[in-house]
Amino acid sequence: MALRDAVSSVLDDARTDLERLVRIPSIWADPAHADDTRRSAEAVAELARAAGAADVSVISAGGGAPAVVAHWPAPEGQPTVLLYAHHDVQPTGGDELWTTPPFEPAERDGRLYGRGAADDKAGVMTHIATLRAYDGRPPVGVTLFIEGEEESGSPTLTTLLVEHREALACDVIVIADSSNPSVDVPALTTSLRGLVDVVVEVSMLERPAHSGVFGGPLGDALTALCHTLASLHDESGEVAVPGLVHGEAPADGPDISEAQLRSDAAVLDGVKLLGDGTVLGRMAHKPAVAVLGIDAPRVADASNVLLPRARAFVSMRLAPGDDAAKAQLALSRHLEENVPWGAQVTVTPGSGTAEPFTISTVGGPFDVARAAFADAYGNDVVEYGIGGSIPFIAEFARAFPGAAVLVTGVGDPASRWHGIDESLHLGMFGRAVLAEALLLEGLVR
Predict the structure, then answer these.
(1) Is 307 exposed, middle or buried (0-12, 13-18, 19+ CB in 10 A)?
(2) Which of 81, 132, 175, 430 could disulfide-pair with 10, CB 3.0 to 4.6 Å?
């Protein structure tokens, strides 16, 4: 009861500090916000100092974003837990599309709206609030590691882990950057899909040609590109790229209904879901491919000419068990082999690569986590795979092979991570803090 009371006593201030963090537009992917991201890192560092850290450092590597490392040394004989989150955020997707300004936190119906309110400044404040509940004296050692470029693919994380290996050494890693199936049901993420991308460019002419004079015998590059992109799926919507791994969700595992998915993702009436199998199986255990951008004239700028060239950005999620390099090659070959009319094609591999990852949840720390989270949420823990990609998890597993990796989260299907009107359920935030506090208590030897 004392720990529950302590957690309750810190939640109001934690929510206030979360709002302060949300007001900082730490979009590291946008060079215009580089200073904001540095300001965000300093704000997190100050929160760590105020929470009783013995030492706090703001670090970076190779021109990368600033990260924060802070330590609460382990009492004699106790393990050290590394608490991870990230303070950088996604671009807004258009400020004018939000109900309220994305960097002005606003509460509506028990949810806090704002970019980063869930992903992942809620993770940052979950860790800070947990440490405050212990008055800066947690029962185990704690290393706080708050990254600043996760939304850019963590390009310098490997270097940070090498250069600061001793400072980050730990026995258990808690990554607060995933989600729960609902606001009152906690989850441990057991697998993540991988990610590869390419840019495909199709060329048919040396220069634009009049569509009336030459149209008919001559095609245009944009139409050829559309044919090529259409070949990525079969008639049912399954990914048609040969050579990819296609998995299935465990038969006895959880699932979500089609109605729930349609509601969570705001699917329009009449739009059919792609592929077959369970909904969660399609989301977490099968590949998915999407065209995320096309370079072509806007409709308002169109004229009666045949376009000489067009290009697209293609992103593909990989099922657990696949290999990113092989999958990227398979995607490139498929695009090259499905360009019509003898058009020339160039496929350039992108840099957004992440290996799929599967986590074993066998062992003492996982048993402790299941008990702690069930106690805090009042419901048993669900263990399932998610469709997203978190490249750094594999990096941590390689850097600290003896550490148990617990992937938790402070989001739910309504959080709209990366989308318009991102939000955090405030009741779930309180349960997440209590769960983490109970986890630290349970890890005492």
Answers:
(1) buried
(2) 132
Q: Which residue, 181, 253, 84, is CA-closest to 411?
A: 181
Q: Which residue has the higher pLDDT, 352 or 228?
A: 228
Q: Give the other-Cβ count within 10 Å of 140's Cβ.
A: 21
Annotated active-site residue 150? The verdict is yes
Pairing of strands 344-349, 141-147: unpaired
Q: What is the pLDDT of residues 236-254, one digit of tens each?
A: 999 999 999 999 888 777 8
Range list for CATH 3.40.630.10 in the chain: 2-191+357-442
Coil vs helix vs strand at 145: strand
Residues of the chain with CATH 3.30.70.360: 194-247+286-349
The total of other beta-carbon atoms located within 10 Å of residue 62's CB is: 10
Look at domain 194-247+286-349 and name its CATH class: alpha beta
Is the pLDDT assigned to residue 140 strictly greater than 80? yes
pLDDT-derived band at 386, boundaries 50, 70, 90:
confident
For every residue of 181-236, DSSP letters joined together read SBTTB-EEEEEE-EEEEEEEEEE--SS-EEHHHHBTTB--HHHHHHHHHHTTB-TT
Which helix or strand (DSSP H or E) is residue 247 part of?
Answer: none
Q: pLDDT band at residue 124, thresholds of 50, 70 and 90?
A: very high
Its CATH architecture, for the domain 2-191+357-442, is 3-Layer(aba) Sandwich (3.40)
Catalytic residue among 19, 150, 171, 355: 150
Q: State pTM to two decimals.
A: 0.88
Residues in a beta bridge with 189: 384
How far apart CA 59 and CA 13 sit, in angstroms, is: 27
Q: What is the residue whose two structure tokens read 């595992």?
A: 253
Please compute the mean of the pLDDT values over residues 313-338 and round it to a whole number.
97
Spatial separation of the C-alpha atoms in residues 21 and 17, rounded to whole Å: 6
**Catalytic site residue from 88, 119, 220, 422:** 88
Give CA separation, 288 vs 106, 113, 121, 260, 440, in Å: 34, 29, 28, 20, 37
3-state SS record for 16-84: HHHHHHHCCCCCCCCHHHHHHHHHHHHHHHHHHHHCCCCEEEEECCCCCCCEEEEEECCCCCCCEEEEE
Count of all residues that appear for the chain in the document: 445
Buried residues in 215-236 as b, exposed as e (16+ CB within 10 A): eeeebbbbbbbbebbeebbeee
pLDDT of residue 353: 84
| Average pLDDT of every residue of the chain | 95
SS3 116: coil
